[in-house]
Amino acid sequence: MMRVRELFSGSGAFALAFLVSLALLTTFIVLYSVLTTHHEIRLIRKGNKAAALSLGGAIVGFSLPVGKAVAQSVSLADLVAWAALAFVAQTLAYAATAALVPHLRKSIADDHVASGILLAALALAIGILNAASMTG
């Protein structure tokens, strides 16, 4: 019985970090969708593959540094600060892509998969670099 208690002794901290991370992810998805103005969720519900790729890449690109932040943060405030940095990085990645690719918003809305793949790849690259740059 003692081993079971020891096994679950950190479950409160796990639950708190996990729930905060889920709240941060949900907030990211909502804010990112508002900022990109393609209304990805609406497009995805209609079967738009480019929007799904784009948003999916951004979600993973955001989650990578947040996961690293969960592992190394010393407080919830620290975790939220790292998540804010990850949000800024993903937003800047989108803005840079939009500046480089003419008519990106229309391309995503018109389900041009190549644009969705490019956005997803850049979001993943930024997320990987962001997470790797975090020091603890």
Give the overall form.
Answer: elongated
Quantity of strands, as a count = 0
| Helix-strand pattern | HHHHHHH
Based on CA atoms alone, the radius of gyration comes out at 17 Å
Could you list the spans in which at least 5 consecutive residues all have pLDDT below 50? none
Q: What is the beta-strand fraction?
A: under 5%
Percent range of helical residues:
over 70%
Largest β-sheet summary: none
What is the helix tally?
7
Number of domains: 1
User: CA-to-CA gap between the ends?
Assistant: 35 Å
Give structural notes:
This protein is mainly alpha-helical. The protein has one domain (2-133). Helix content is 84%, strand content 0%. It is elongated, with a radius of gyration of 17 Å. The model has no long low-confidence stretch (mean pLDDT 89).
